[in-house]
Amino acid sequence: MPASQVDRLAAIAARRGRIVAAVSDFGDRYPLPARVWGRLSLDFTGIAFASLFFCWSLTPSLLPRDWLFQGIVGGINAAIGYGVGCAVGWAVHRFLLSGRRWWPPPLPVVRAFKVAIPVAGVVAALVALVLAADDQRQLAALMGSERTTTSGYLRTILLSLGVSAGLIGLWRALHDIGRWVAGQLIRRARVPLGLARTLGVLVVVLATFMLIDGVLLRGAYFFTNQAFSLHDDTTREGTLQPAEPTKSGSPDSHAPWESLGFQGRDFVSRGLDAGELSAISGVPAQDPIRVYVGLDSADTPEERADLVVAELERTGAFDRSVLALIPTTGTGWVNPTAAQAMELVHNGDLAMVAWQYSYLPSWISFLADREKAAAAGEMLIDRVRERWTQLPEDTRPKLYIYGESLGTQSGEGAFDSIGEIRSSVDGVLWVGPPNSNRLWRQIVERRDPGTPEVLPVYADGLVVRFAGGSDSVPEPDAAWLAPRVLYIQHTSDPVVWWSPDLIFSRPDWLAEPPGHDRLPQMRWFPFVTFWQVSADLTNAAGVPDGHGHNYGTAVLDGWLAIARPDGWTADDTERARTALEQLRGVQGPEK
Prior knowledge:
Largest sheet: 7 strands, parallel
Strand order of the largest sheet: 1-3-2-4-5-7-6
Helix content: 55-70%
Distance between the termini: 78 Å
Number of strands: 7
Shape: elongated
Strand content: 5-15%
Number of helices: 21
């Protein structure tokens, strides 16, 4: 070996020896801190990246976040950043620094970095928290919601530390289990080191997957379903069994009151009668028809579909001017504002039909049972259409579809294309569609060049149009062919914009102008934005009307765009909107 190389290796070894000696000396002088730090054994590159990811997580997203959700999001992202930093540090050391004459650096430099990195991380986090609190106040002001305080927001850092420490500890535990498995393979089966490590990782990954998918998720699904099925047996306070034969659950109904479920009983007990509608419109009205079938109304989906048709026949629904099919959300919820808007627009001359396909709330159904939602929507629409098409074309009612949130996914399940929609129904209104909706995704991806994702134009708006709220709902015109399809989607609705793709790729909507209720400070960061928007989902309907997943009376404007009656005027619209706002104030929470 050349003398120069020997000297270089000797210098590196001597420098490493001094670092080890200094660490040992630190442990002798300060045993408790040394013992704690030894237990933690934190990687300094990981700390730097954890601080960076935490600061990224503090940037604004779609909806205001309080300190609690920010603490959880910040902790998750800090743990991810720590893992990324450890991987980057290992790769840099392994492929770039190993064997360099000047590496490792002198001991004073190492000590300086070990002090500077954590201190800089804490300072950066505190500064970012102060700036983030101001961003959150700006976003809350845009939406008219409650604003946070800087002092209260500083609590975020403590919660984030706890969350990230827990996740890093869990990862280390899994890593240690993998090493233990590898050691057992080496000692007992004489497996080579490299193969043993690989097998150890595979065993841990497989066992973790089986635990999560086979035990935790399925167990959670089972117990959650049981818990919400018990809730389904309850009835909202003040909800009374209807006496009118035009409603399911009445004494004349084929669907007993007790079988409709919590949301079904709520749906049929609400609504406006002919007298109330006449008082609002100033002309004679009819009692609207509300048909609903619950999970307990019949044993199988096929029998429940038959029961839907039987209820439509019994109530005279096919003799009305309008028949509105409403694929529901997970629990069978129907937006009462939307239902009342339809009753006001048609002055009671309509029938609405919905059914329940699950006990679970929409967010759980969305994660675990999307296929069931699509199948339920397809069965409902197909079975009603089958009977509807048997009626004389000139006398049968207009057939419309309304869906909101997961109900749009359920409704889309009945159709393969826009062409099939046009040949099947007289109009469609879909509000707050999830990003995973198949038809919605196809339309958005094929939008006309130069049009934004948040408000796309498809095929010059001949059949399908989009609106961002009441102000942008298009007026029916000659260029908008019937039957019309309208999507309403807020720029701040996390249900519309959440997608696993946010983990690794920036969506088009984040490269576009922010709109009226999204801050321009929102940026895309790998991993981070996904968790930010995931946290926004938990508060999607907790913001004022016109923002997030709360569409308020925009459904009135949307319904008029696809199903405006002849002779309807702007004064009629304002009269209906006033009535809706009064009803919303009296009725209170909708879910």
